[in-house]
Write a structure and sequence with these properties.
The chain is an alpha+beta fold. The protein has 2 domains: 33 residues, no CATH class; 228 residues, no CATH class. The strands form 3 sheets. A 5-stranded mixed beta sheet has the order 4-9-8-7-10, with no helix packed on it. Helix 6 runs parallel beside helix 10. The termini are far apart.
């Protein structure tokens, strides 16, 4: 066995990383002892890490999706905001219709802190997601005026969530909601939850930066195998809009990627809705100098500037 030929399989950076790991474990003296055959290296499997030190999901070596996950864009960074729960809740109440139902500020804060503590209990492998940007959000409860009649999902989104977002920025749509979303019925469980009470969760905007939806879905399925339930879910319009309204200084920054609404992906048709942001030619009266469009993207393709979000509700 020729050590030099073996070393040729690896880059200089990879070799330097191995040396650094050995030095970190036993110091430079350990390297000399190994070379002198007075110490040996024992290779053991270690528990998988799911999120890196920046809160991004680590690509699994077992991925079978057609598109590989690109390296993270280190130039992109969202700061973690200070969270005044009273102020964030007041923003939501301001933009959502009066008939929607919200908890008290104290209830919002208490539940959010419990969810964050629950994530931390999973240990570093999962809790690292909190090293990225995380935003406590609240989806309003909706008074049930329909009795046993089904809610029209498209009218529900337009009348409550998209209408709320249009109050703070201009929304155009290159496709109709009915062309993006499947028939009413696939989201009955989601709507039933909102008809009962507000839903509080922790929203993670970009832990999947650069992932295709298919690759992200495969990675989350592997992650869920280590738990008794799926700890995270993809976000759709409801969660994304609530986060944009509550944290506009973070999510309406001018250099942010757009949002894929992976929670509403139509897998058998290979597409997902997304919200794209672009600069407008000038400030709109009463609105941000930014406009958004509702569009469709392929679930199998990686987009550098469109990322799926995750939600944790415990």
């Amino acid at each position: 066995m020729d050590p030099l030929k073996d070393a040729a399989q690896f880059t200089g950076s990879q070799i330097a990383t191995v040396i650094h790991k050995i030095r970190k474990a036993g110091g430079s003296e350990a390297i000399r002892e190994i070379l002198a055959d007075r110490k040996k290296i024992i290779v053991e499997d270690i528990p998988p890490k799911f999120f890196d030190k920046n809160g991004r999901l680590i690509p699994s070596p077992n991925l079978t999706s057609a598109f590989s996950v690109p390296d993270p864009d280190r130039a992109f960074y969202l700061k973690q905001p200070e969270i005044n729960y009273k102020d964030r809740l007041e923003r939501l109440q301001k933009y959502f219709p009066e008939e929607t139902i919200f908890p008290s500020a104290d209830g919002f804060e208490e539940k959010s802190n419990l969810l964050i503590e629950e994530i931390q209990k999973y240990g570093e492998d999962i809790a690292n997601i909190l090293k990225g940007t995380y935003l406590p959000i609240c989806l309003p409860g909706v008074a049930d005026t329909t009795g046993n009649s089904p809610i029209n999902y498209h009218e529900f989104l337009h009348g409550i969530f998209l209408a709320a977002m249009e109050k703070i920025l201009r929304l155009s749509s290159t496709v109709k909601l009915r062309d993006i979303f499947p028939a009413t019925g696939e989201y009955d469980d989601h709507l039933d939850r909102m008809k009962k009470s507000p839903t509080i969760g922790i929203y993670f905007p970009y832990p999947l930066q650069g992932y295709s939806i298919d690759t992200a879905d495969e990675s989350l399925c592997e992650l869920s195998e280590h738990f008794v339930f799926d700890p995270f879910m993809f976000t759709g319009i409801t969660e994304t809009v609530a986060a944009i309204i509550a944290y506009p200084e973070i999510l309406l920054a001018l250099d942010i990627p757009s949002f894929s609404l992976a929670g509403l992906a139509v897998s058998h048709l290979d597409y997902s809705p997304c919200i794209k942001f672009k600069l407008s030619h000038g400030p709109q009266e009463g609105k941000a100098n930014l406009f958004s469009s509702l569009d469709k993207i392929r679930t199998s393709k990686c987009y550098a500037d469109i990322s799926p979000g995750l939600l944790f509700v415990g």
